[in-house]
What we know:
The longest helix has 20 residues, at 145-164. The chain contains 7 helices and 7 strands; from the N terminus they run βαββαβααβαβααβ. By secondary structure, it is an alpha/beta fold. The chain has a 7-stranded parallel beta sheet, sandwiched between helices. This is SDR family NAD(P)-dependent oxidoreductase. Belongs to the short-chain dehydrogenases/reductases (SDR) family. Keywords: Oxidoreductase.
Amino acid sequence: MSGGRTALITGGTGGLGAATVAAFVADGWRVVAPVRPGRADGLPKGAVPVDGDMSNESDVTAAVAVAAGDSEAPLRAVVNLIGGFASGPLVGETPWSDFEAQLLTNLRPTYLVTAAALPHLVAAGGGSVVSVSSRTALSPFPGSAGYSTSKAAVIAFANSVAVDYRKQNVRSNTVVPSVIDTPANRVAMPDADFSRWVRPERIAPTILFLASDASAPTSGAQIPVYGRA
């Protein structure tokens, strides 16, 4: 896509988020990126920062209003990158509060941002929602119940959006990474073979493609971006 269109990208200061924001800016998009207060310096140049917590409905409403507020560049894409990982004990030893915390981290922002943005996408004549799940949603490992369930819920939610808004020309797809090669993951898994992981800048073009008119026939898909992991 070229200029004249806005993308709302959450999680823009993270490893995948920064690469994705940079890719959209380079492609000519107006990019609005909600950030925690004081974190705007972590965004790539060219993005429009908006302070806010995307788990807070009022902050979400304000961020979406900024994203949809330029009549020369209507909101045409929402990219949900906010999330976090936490492992724990086996299910029978995991408190509900710990399990629920992963739903709040990985599903709540995706739901709130998407739900708030959908009327604007419809009003603009259609658009694209791209959300990020995890390979763990499809292949859990011991101790991952909260994380894997929350990321599976992201897929189910994205598919529901695809079905609900098909007639309104709004598409919804999910990108499914394995381990992303970020500094934080290298610190967490120092003995891993980093060459098998996929770098953020290799995933960003897939997200950009799913947001673009080039992927117009595609909705309700889960796209694996595993690298060699």
